[in-house]
Structures are given as C-alpha cells and as structure tokens.
Request: fold
Amino acid sequence: MNSHNIIFHVDMDAFFASCEEVKNPHFRGKPVVVGADPEVGHGRGVVSTANYEARKYGIHSAMPISRAWQLCPFAVFLPVNGKLYHAVSEDIMRILKKYSPTVEQVSVDEAYFKIKSKEKNLTPKMVAEKIRKEIYNTHEITCSIGIASNKLVAKVASDHQKPNGLTIVNNGAEEEFLAPLDIKKLPGIGPKTALIFNKMGVRTIGELQKLSAQILLDKFGKRGEWLFMASHGQGETDIISISPAAKSLGEEHTFSRDTADIQQLVRTLFGLIDSVCANLQHRWFRTITIIVRYEGFVSHSKAHSEEFPRDVEYVKKESLKLLWPFLQKGKKVRLLGFRISNFI
Ligand code: TTP
Ligand code: MG
Reply:
C-alpha cells in the first residue's frame, strides 16, 4: 500500500436496527426487524434491515415483510424512524471527519476516506481500531472497516468479516484476497450478471480473473472492461466529498423546437434522470424536482420528497407523476429539467 492510497471503507452494522437497540436496550439479544408494518403476516411492504439475531432466521433487507413474519413471528417489528437514523448518521460522519479532511459519504451508514501512512505514528490498523472504539463509546454501535489501496477492494473488505470486523488488504494482495470470494461479492455484479457468469461456469472472482479482457469485452461491451479491472482488484482511488455548497445536482435540456410530444418529453426526462443519477455514486437524496419551461419562457417547478427514496426506476416513476399534470395542458415545452437535492 503506498503512502497516498490507504483507503478506508466504514459501514455500520445492521444500522437501522442498531439505532433502535440503542434507543431501547431491552431489544438487545432479540431478533429485531425494521421496515413496513407486518400486519400479522399480511403486510405488503418490505424489510429495511434486520439485526444479526433476526438474520439467523433468514430475514434480510428488501425481503417482503410478510415473509419475515413467517420466518420469525416473535421478532420485534419496528417502523422506520428516519429522523433517528439521520441524526446518528450525521454524528458518525462527524467522527470520521476527525480522522480525514475528506470523507465521501455514500449512503446513510457508509463512507470512504483516505489517510496517509503512519500518520501521527499510527498504523492504518491502529487508526481503524481508534475509530471503532470512538464510535462504540459514543453511540454503542459497531461498524465494520475495510482498508485497501482502492475503494472497490476496501468495500469488499469491510463486508468480509461483518459484523464488527476489520479486514486489511495489503497493496499487491488485492487479486489474491478477491480470488476465493463469490462473484456476487463484487459491488456491481448483481443477480442477473451473476447468473450469466454461473452459466459460463464462473462462480468465484478467481474464476472470473481467468477470463481474458477480450472475452469480457465481447460478452459485456464497455462494462467488460470494468469487470476485468474489478476482478483483478483495481478500482478508483478518488475520494469525493459533497461540499456543503453542492446542495443539489441537476441537468436541463432545451429542445431545438418547442414540443408537446408526450413520448419525446418522457424520453427526455428519463434521459436527464439517468444522467444525473449516474453521477451519484450511491449517494442518497430525499428530494426530486422537475422543471418545465413552456414556450414564452413561463417556468414551473414541482418537487417531491420522501424519507428513503429507492432506485432510479422508482425516481422515474415519481418524476413522471410530477410531469404528468404539465403534459395534460397540451402546451408546447421549451425546456425540461431534473434536479435532486436534500442529500442524506
Ligand atoms: P446496509 O449497510 O446495506 O445494511 P445494514 O447496515 O442494515 O447491515 P450490514 O451490517 O450488512 O451493513 O444498509 C444500511 C441501512 O440502509 C440499513 O440499516 C437499512 C437501509 N436499507 C434499506 O432501507 N433497504 C435496503 O434494501 C437496504 C440494503 C438498506
Ligand atoms: Mg451497514
């Protein structure tokens, strides 16, 4: 690991459930499920997270809450208390900023940052232990930390020994560390891609490492390049922190000719959403805004906020709801804009 690239990835353990346990210590040791109301097994929502006790019953994030109820009806089921998690998250990020001036928060409970080697005579391991101790002493919440020469390997490492784990991958040992792991452990390989690889007889990252760059390129196009680099343990090293000034991110499109063509408008809006969300790097945000400027420069904007927005498809669905009333009027549109704000 060279002195400039010692990257930490910190991820809180069972975050929402851990916050609930701190608030109600008598939940400790019991299975805790945070998410939609199970409605005695008839609830239609999903699990946000489950603590490690509940995971022993097979309960996990994004599982239908009705299934979680079937698996463990005596678990403590709690609604999502966004305010509480947000406050704890802010505090934890404040702690991390004491150890590095640039912290890249990528979700409510995880962040990357860099340190210099032997900073103040502390090894990376000592820094990690200090951080874990400080977070635990102030919040009674455990986290897992991965340390590596790039963000990708640091993220895989933080997940490697969860909960309450510390995994250090030395510079040069990235490939070897990844080799025995299931390909699904590589962030960016979802169930669909994993299935394609499994059909090719590739189950571990080591098996993926044996495929040539050309084969991956032929099969996956541009993404093949990334798969090749990632499987060999290469990844980004830039830590990007959102400055307080950058409170929103957005794009606009001015049509070459004013248009009332619904298909064209929807296609353009979705293009803007894809483009804005592609720059997000897994950051979460609460508010989406669309901007509609009619011919004659009359502009309108409409926003929608929620506690924990989901994926890009969901954002598109919500944005379409915002756009819809403007389309009903049949007026020609000169410009469309899309903006996200209220980062978490
Ligand atoms: P994660 O860090 O993915 O999960 P976790 O912290 O609960 O557990 P782990 O120990 O494995 O890190 O997500 C952080 C929080 O984000 C999680 O506590 C709840 C929320 N979340 C959802 O609401 N829905 C989801 O599908 C996921 C994955 C997380
Ligand atoms: Mg977590």
Remarks:
- The first strand starts at residue 6 and ends at 12.
